[in-house]
Design brief:
Distance between the termini of chain A: 48 Å
Helix content of chain B: 55-70%
Number of domains of chain B: 1
Strand order of the largest sheet of chain B: 1-2
Number of domains of chain A: 2
Structural class of chain A: mainly alpha
Number of strands of chain A: 0
CATH class of chain B: Mainly Alpha
Helix content of chain A: over 70%
CATH topology of chain B: 434 Repressor (Amino-terminal Domain)
Strand content of chain A: under 5%
CATH superfamily of chain B: lambda repressor-like DNA-binding domains
Oligomer: heterodimer
Largest interface: A-B, 9 and 12 residues
Distance between the termini of chain B: 6 Å
Order of helices and strands of chain B: EHHHHHE
Largest sheet of chain B: 2 strands, antiparallel
Order of helices and strands of chain A: HHHH
Number of strands of chain B: 2
Largest sheet of chain A: none
Structural class of chain B: mainly alpha
Radius of gyration of chain A: 21 Å
């Protein structure tokens, strides 16, 4: 299989998985959605391994890194602001649903920042020179 | 701002008009990466730069130049 065929299969599989996940949500059956996602990942891995051409190289990895960094930054800022607004607007009743959502978002934001800091520290140590 | 330029396009033509796809296969990257390199939109890793120089049997300096 060459790269073009792989890309076509990747697009087809993405549509199939998307439809299956939507069907799972509509029918309130998470097993369908989960099976579709896991199945799609397995089939894609098999297809990628049977592809002779290079499907991912350093430029793709650099793009993925930049996209992930932007997504993380925007996500953290967005969630942080949403958490602050939800808690601030409902500070008289912190047991209310919006305030609870704000609290959960605040914890997720802090958790992600901690994971990011730990991961950065580990990777930074791995590629640091020793004096 | 420092800029890295390259002679990949010329070197390909000097080597029996090697196609972008052939060069990509030789160095283990995609054709899109070779296109991006030739257009100066992407600066390769040291490893990829050495691989490209090796394919053309020239020194790294003959492929890539650092402009100030």
């Amino acid at each position: 299989m060459n790269r073009k065929t792989y890309m076509v299969w990747q697009a087809v599989l993405t549509v199939i998985v998307g439809v299956a996940v939507a069907a799972g949500v509509i029918w309130d059956n998470w097993i369908i959605a989960l099976a579709a996602v896991v199945g799609g990942m397995i089939v894609l891995t098999i297809l990628r391994r049977s592809t002779k051409d290079v499907t991912v190289d350093e430029r793709n990895i650099a793009s993925v890194y930049k996209a992930a960094r932007l997504t993380f930054s925007l996500g953290i800022i967005g969630m942080g602001i949403a958490a602050l607004v939800l808690i601030a607007l409902n500070r008289d009743n912190l047991a209310s649903t919006p305030a609870s959502i704000g609290t959960v978002l605040a914890y997720i934001t802090c958790g992600l920042l901690i994971i990011n800091t730990v991961a950065y520290t580990i990777y930074n140590r791995q590629i640091s020179g020793k004096e | 701002m420092p800029k890295i330029t390259n002679n990949i396009r010329r070197l390909r033509f000097d080597h029996d008009e090697m196609t972008q796809d052939e060069l990509a296969r030789h160095v283990g990257c995609t054709r899109q990466t070779i296109i991006a390199l030739e257009q100066g939109k992407y600066v390769p890793s040291i490893e990829l730069a050495f691989k490209i120089a090796k394919v053309f049997k020239v020194k790294l300096d003959d492929v890539f130049q650092h402009e100030r």
